[in-house]
């Protein structure tokens, strides 16, 4: 009853990379309510529509309740033995690179850590990649090249003390709503100006001073033009550049060749000369500028270069390391960052280390591991191609739904169909991917599991359990630990709690670090269980000999070998796929009230009311030219596949482009699976991130 004892548990929202603190109140009846945590630095009490509806999603509907082999209920022992045996057999017959894990930004850092340790340290392959490949990989490359490490320089407070915020390929209003609320509150208080660079007129534009509705894929050119403009008009911070930056001449030469004047930029970006000139002048005249970028930049075949084109302008003008300044990547997923910290990407080893001989040796000694992978593994697109080709014969998919979300989902489905062993760990039984599983393992979900996540401004927060696992569901770290023991690695996998894993992860981050590597949370290597349980949100790095650091690079020292920021020469590239006559460019993305493939948000009637079905947004002129009417049905055809969706005619959609949300699956509607429409041919050569936003599509009445 309401007068009975209740418990309050502090945890973290499992949706987006803002990483809001949540207080869950559990009544004596077991009923749960949630509210924002006023003490959490990410949200200070705020929640968005998705976070507010979290309690609605804590229902048993659709859950995978017990392990299954070939659709039959089995015991945990039988299931774990089968996974270990099938992986061990495959490795014995075909070598370590014949197996793979495909994991998720929904996993907690401890889950990620142990999966990475098993694959890279003990199986001896680096074939573990994550759906963060579809989310952040281009920013990782851009950060490493420019800053010397995958480290977001600023903090959320910078949104509040900037005078100009430039949103590039980021629908912050829908995809990072609480951060957008913080920005709008600051704007109301101090008149922050906002510029939106996006082919669509998103909700962000309502509060913006300027909307540059550029042609899809021309953002690198816009920033090359800005770099050239700033230098030519006397806005170089000569002191900063001389002391702290490298590569300025090369970057400027490339920018000038690409974008010699504003007229050229305007023409190629499809913008008015006057609006480009006004944006450049405003950027030049404002000291405190934060440039925020997200999937519009990352999910591109030149995503890495675009990130560097953005970093370049901040380096040239010294707008980094100070309050209200800097480039700022906002991550899509709740723990895309935590996963990267422990080596969730196939091209990273652990604790932000790569595959140099020194790093392989260092990690091998720390883990006391027999066969640390010595080279990067397969990135997501290549991984599923290798499964299709039969070179990878066993895959374990954790907490993600690649049969929907990967480009060329048809290929992913063919690959899983022919794969000898498909293991799927998930909370939900009937996902599009789960249908291909030989072995299903029930995982605990949000509210049932313990661990940590890292948000977009490097803040590490606890997710805490406040409910029992549904059915026989177990934590992902526990499942991986049990399989590792059964594969013969019991000594190296003694874990009985998430806290033990966190301590080991923290210790590895500081092992032979000497202050030379960016990621270091060595101060927490000795945390006891009670300390882990009580851990308050903190930003990394947090070295044993220093305080945690909120804003990086204030001293002008970067993580590159010579300590200097590196400007990269960038040349804007044309669209990666040829566009047939009459085709439109299909852009894909999120809606405000849904999350990923709707396995959780789809359970909330309140959330589903915002958009009951997928709609194809199309400009009135494009609709009229094709005989499409608002509310009618359209057939969307690409080289990869076909879909059906209801049409919404809106001039918010740029001419020549259409937009479809990414969330719907065959589980919810058989007719609109986004991954079936986008091919996997256009991929950033450096980051391996697929281009999910510019697929040529023919649209016609159904
Ligand atoms: Fe959750 Fe993101 Fe909303 Fe915060 S902004 S409540 S992290 S979905």
TrEMBL record:
Keyword Zinc-finger: no
Family: Belongs to the prokaryotic molybdopterin-containing oxidoreductase family. NasA/NapA/NarB subfamily.
Record keywords, A-Z: 4Fe-4S, Iron, Iron-sulfur, Metal-binding, Molybdenum, Nitrate assimilation, Oxidoreductase
GO biological processes: cellular respiration; nitrate assimilation
Cofactor(s) annotated in UniProt: Mo-bis(molybdopterin guanine dinucleotide); [4Fe-4S] cluster
Molecular functions (GO terms): 4 iron, 4 sulfur cluster binding; metal ion binding; molybdopterin cofactor binding; oxidoreductase activity
Every 4Fe-4S Mo/W bis-MGD-type domain range: 6-62
Protein name, UniProt field: Nitrate reductase
rRNA processing among keywords: no
Gene Ontology cellular component list: membrane; oxidoreductase complex
Native source species: Azospirillum palustre
């Amino acid at each position: 009853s309401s007068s009975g004892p209740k418990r309050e548990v502090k945890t973290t929202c499992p949706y987006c990379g803002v990483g809001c603190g949540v207080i869950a109140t559990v009544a004596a009846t077991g009923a749960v309510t949630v509210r924002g945590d006023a003490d959490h630095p990410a949200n200070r009490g705020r929640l968005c529509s998705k976070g507010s509806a979290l309690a609605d999603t804590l229902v048993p509907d659709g859950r995978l309740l017990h392990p299954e082999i070939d659709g039959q209920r089995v015991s945990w022992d039988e299931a774990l033995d089968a996974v270990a045996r099938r992986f061990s057999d495959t490795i014995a017959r075909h070598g370590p690179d014949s197996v793979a894990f495909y994991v998720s930004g929904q996993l907690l850092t401890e889950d990620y850590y142990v999966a990475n340790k098993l694959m890279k340290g003990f199986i001896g392959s680096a074939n573990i990649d994550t759906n963060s490949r579809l989310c952040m990989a281009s920013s990782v490359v851009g950060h490493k090249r420019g800053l010397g490490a995958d480290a977001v320089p600023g903090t959320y407070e910078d949104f509040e003390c900037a005078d100009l915020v430039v949103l590039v390929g980021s629908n912050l209003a829908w995809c990072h709503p609480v951060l957008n609320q913080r920005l709008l509150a600051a704007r109301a208080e101090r008149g922050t100006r906002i510029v939106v660079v996006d082919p669509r007129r998103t909700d962000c534009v309502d509060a913006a001073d300027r909307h540059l509705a550029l042609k899809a894929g021309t953002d690198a050119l816009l920033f090359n033009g800005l770099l050239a403009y700033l230098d030519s008009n006397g806005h170089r911070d000569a002191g900063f550049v001389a002391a702290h930056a490298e590569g300025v001449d090369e970057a400027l030469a490339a920018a000038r060749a690409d974008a010699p004047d504003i007229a050229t930029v305007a023409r190629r970006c499809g913008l008015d000369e006057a609006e480009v000139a006004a944006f450049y002048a405003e950027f030049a005249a404002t000291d405190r500028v934060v440039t925020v970028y997200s999937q519009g930049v990352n999910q591109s075949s030149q995503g890495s270069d675009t990130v560097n084109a953005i970093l370049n302008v901040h380096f040239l003008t010294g707008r980094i390391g100070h309050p209200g300044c800097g480039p700022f990547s906002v991550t899509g997923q709740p723990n895309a960052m935590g996963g990267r910290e422990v080596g969730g990407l196939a091209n990273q080893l652990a604790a932000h280390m790569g595959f140099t001989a020194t790093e392989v040796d260092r990690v091998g000694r720390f883990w006391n591991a027999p066969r640390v992978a010595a080279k990067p593994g397969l990135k997501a697109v290549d991984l599923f191609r290798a499964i299709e080709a039969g070179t990878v014969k066993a895959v374990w998919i954790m907490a993600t739904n690649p049969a929907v979300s990967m480009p060329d989902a048809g290929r992913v489905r063919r690959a899983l169909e022919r794969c000898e062993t498909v293991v799927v760990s998930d909370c939900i039984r009937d996902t599009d991917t789960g249908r291909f599983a030989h072995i299903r393992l029930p995982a605990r979900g949000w509210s049932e599991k313990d661990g940590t996540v890292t948000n977009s401004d490097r803040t590490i927060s606890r997710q805490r359990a406040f409910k029992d696992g549904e059915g026989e569901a177990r934590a992902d770290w526990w499942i991986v630990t049990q399989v590792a023991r059964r594969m013969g690695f019991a000594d190296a996998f003694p874990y009985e709690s998430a806290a033990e894993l966190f301590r080991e992860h923290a210790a590895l981050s500081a092992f032979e670090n000497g202050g030379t590597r960016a990621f270091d949370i060595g101060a927490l290597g000795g945390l006891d269980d009670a300390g882990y349980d009580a851990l308050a949100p903190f930003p990394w790095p947090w070295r044993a000999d220093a305080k945690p650091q909120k804003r990086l690079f204030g001293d002008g020292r970067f993580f590159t070998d010579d300590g200097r920021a590196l400007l990269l020469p960038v040349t804007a590239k044309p669209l990666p796929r040829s566009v047939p006559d009459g085709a439109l460019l299909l852009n894909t993305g999120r809606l405000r009230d849904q999350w990923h493939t709707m396995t959780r948000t789809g359970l909330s009637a309140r959330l589903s009311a915002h958009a009951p079905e997928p709609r194809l947004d199309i400009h009135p002129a494009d609709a009229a030219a094709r005989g499409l009417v608002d509310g009618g049905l359209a057939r969307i055809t690409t080289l990869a596949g076909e879909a059906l969706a209801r049409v919404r005619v809106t001039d918010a959609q740029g001419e020549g482009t259409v937009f479809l949300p990414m969330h719907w699956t065959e589980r919810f509607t058989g007719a609109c699976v986004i991954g079936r429409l986008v091919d996997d041919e256009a991929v950033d050569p450096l980051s391996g991130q697929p281009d999910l936003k510019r697929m040529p599509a023919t649209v016609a009445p159904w």
